Amino acid sequence: MSCLINLNPLITKGFVLTAAHCIIDGGNLKVRLGEYDSSTNHDCSGIVCIPPSEEFEIVRAFRNDNYSRTDRYNDIGLLHLEKSVVYKVSTVHIKPICLITNTAFQPQIEGLQHFVAVGWGGSSPGSPSHILKSIRANRLNRSECRKRYLVDCRMDQICVAHESGESCSGDSGGPMGHAIRYHGRIVFIQVGIVSYGNPECRSPSVFTDVMAHMNWIKNVLDLHS
């Protein structure tokens, strides 16, 4: 899988969440926010257009110290933007995704069985999409994932099978989430980060479990915000 930094979700005005394997040592990373159709300068539906996407330089990338390149354990990272995002009416299409930091919600999150993942990955190898797409995914228990697909899924990972399409090249580091009721409101929360999948674009895919790494996320934000 390749990593598109115009897919990774904004979680605060200054940080973007990604996969550790997307962070290349010595690489010059930029983040593009508000992109929908990567083949055009302006994203339009008929005569209605949204404002153009915005690019941000990265001043520092944080990769989980326990990340394993060989098996993708602890595959999570954070990108610190050079300048903070300014939320305004003209850029209403750019806003942060929600993360659940309250551990009281952990049983509810762990009980979720159906998700939505987004990305520019195609449904076959080597055929990325220009349009941001969403696919539905269903959780597989770890023993089923190991038995059916020979994938060893750890406690800090989520194994899913896809209903249609597939999380292919172009999706790495991208978000998977679910809508929940939180303090009386329905909010879409990020549950996982695309880590790796079947190279032939078949189920399953393995996602880093965001909540399992919440302490690491909060520590980085507390130290560098």
TrEMBL record:
Superkingdom: Eukaryota
Keyword Phosphoprotein: no
One Pfam family this sequence matches: Trypsin
Single GO BP term: proteolysis
SUPFAM superfamilies in UniProt: Trypsin-like serine proteases (SSF50494)
Domain (Peptidase S1) ranges: 1-222
Protein name: Chymotrypsin-like protease CTRL-1
A GO MF label: metal ion binding
Keyword Repressor carried by entry: no
Keyword vocabulary terms for this entry: Calcium, Hydrolase, Metal-binding, Protease, Serine protease, Zymogen
InterPro entries per the UniProt record, alphabetical: CLIP_Serine_Protease, Peptidase_S1_PA, Peptidase_S1_PA_chymotrypsin, Peptidase_S1A, Trypsin_dom, TRYPSIN_HIS
